[in-house]
Amino acid sequence: VPTAPFTYERAGSFAEAVALLQALGEDARVIAGGQSLVPLMLLRFAQPAALVDIRGAGERAIERTGDRLVISALARHADIEASPEARSAWPILAEAAGQIGNVRVRHRGTIGGSLAHAEASAEWPCVAVALGATVHVLGPAGERAIAARDLVITHLTTSLEPGEVITRIELPLPAPGEGAAFAEYARRPGDFALLTVAAVVRPGSARVVLGAIADRPIDASAAAGDGSDPEAAGRAVAAGVEIGPHPHAGVEWRRELIAVLVTRALEAARERA
Ligand SMILES: Cc1cc2nc3c(=O)[nH]c(=O)nc-3n(C[C@H](O)[C@H](O)[C@H](O)COP(=O)(O)OP(=O)(O)OC[C@H]3O[C@@H](n4cnc5c(N)ncnc54)[C@H](O)[C@@H]3O)c2cc1C
Question: What interhelical angle do 230-240 and 251-272 show, nearest 10?
């Protein structure tokens, strides 16, 4: 048998998922796209006693509500890549979604699952921090909102409490003069990134967030200044950032990569702005 034994339930709503998790105890896990959890179960790194399938817990909706873009936690990477609402609000979303894994992964994996899984090189945590996203969750104690920058604690560890389920992600719509862009480098298309960069510029300031160089997204905005000189900002961010070890690339090579990709992301963000 490839995985350890487990029971399987389907939740018809997020509230039902929370109730099932409570009833099934601490060895129960939700499963959305299964694109991170199932590989871990096959390796027996994860051995949940019970799975609560949340694919039917709500719509995979992506919509503008007032001054926000609201993305269901169940929206798949491919849904976001194709969504006219997401593309017109923040083109960076389609840009990042298109870099995730392969077409099979993008059609099954969800943004909620990616944020909850908190892989250090994942695209969504990096983009969510850069755009100032709010992650809405439902749990035994009711609803709460977590700023994306407070969600990932370290690789594969979040501030979600036991039994909490991500229900939706909310992003502010771009203000006039605001633009964002994403840049990434992986050894082969579909591989996990060696570096992700999400850059957001607005009049007088810039936000630059780096992924895959530490155990969680790094906000390097202080070094980037107002982003008006992308090349200087790229060099400053690269010089100032602490780079963790990686099996496939040395520290100085990645420092150079940071300078190049931060420059490119800021240039593209400025064009969009
Ligand atoms: C070949 C391959 C390549 C990949 N490449 C990339 C890549 O380049 N970049 C990248 O970011 N990812 C990559 N992935 C992972 C993929 O993006 C996953 O889809 C994503 O990380 C998790 O989403 P999921 O819906 O599949 O979650 P699942 O695998 O179903 O769940 C993952 C974890 O999140 C929890 N979870 C799921 N949904 C919720 C929720 N709503 N609330 C709370 N907890 C929840 C689960 O309990 C589990 O712990 C790759 C996967 C594969 C198989």
Answer: 150
pLDDT tens sequence across 4-20: 999 999 999 999 999 99
Q: Is residue 29 within 8 Å of 37, Cβ to Cβ?
A: yes
Compute the distance between CA of residue 85 and CA of residue 88 in angstroms, rounded to an integer: 5
The number of the ligand 1 atom at minimal distance from the alpha carbon of 190 is 8
Distance from residue 110's CA to the centre of ligand 1 (Å): 6
Q: Is 37 in the pocket of ligand 1 (CB under 6 A)?
A: yes
Quick check: CB of 101 below 6 Å from ligand 1?
Answer: yes
Q: What is the DSSP string of 127-177?
A: HHHHTT-EEEEEETTEEEEEEGGGTEEETTEESPPTT-EEEEEEEEPPPTT
* Distance of alpha carbon 119 from alpha carbon 246, whole angstroms: 14
178-215 pLDDT tens trace: 999 999 999 998 899 999 999 999 999 999 999 999 99
**Ligand 1 within 6 A of 162 CB?**
no
Tokens 């992301």 appear where? 265
**pLDDT below 50 — which residues of the chain?**
none
What whole-number distance in Å separates Cα of residue 116 and Cα of residue 94?
A: 20
Q: Rounded CA gap, 64 and 3, in Å?
A: 40
Question: Which pLDDT does position 189 carry in this prediction?
Answer: 85
User: Which residue's alpha carbon is nearest to atom 51 within ligand 1?
Assistant: 35
Pairing outcome for strands 157-158 and 62-65: unpaired
Q: Is 244 in the pocket of ligand 1 (CB under 6 A)?
A: no
Single pTM value for the model: 0.98
Would you call 109 helix, strand, or coil by DSSP? Answer: coil
Q: Which residue puts its alpha carbon closest to atom 37 of ligand 1?
A: 113
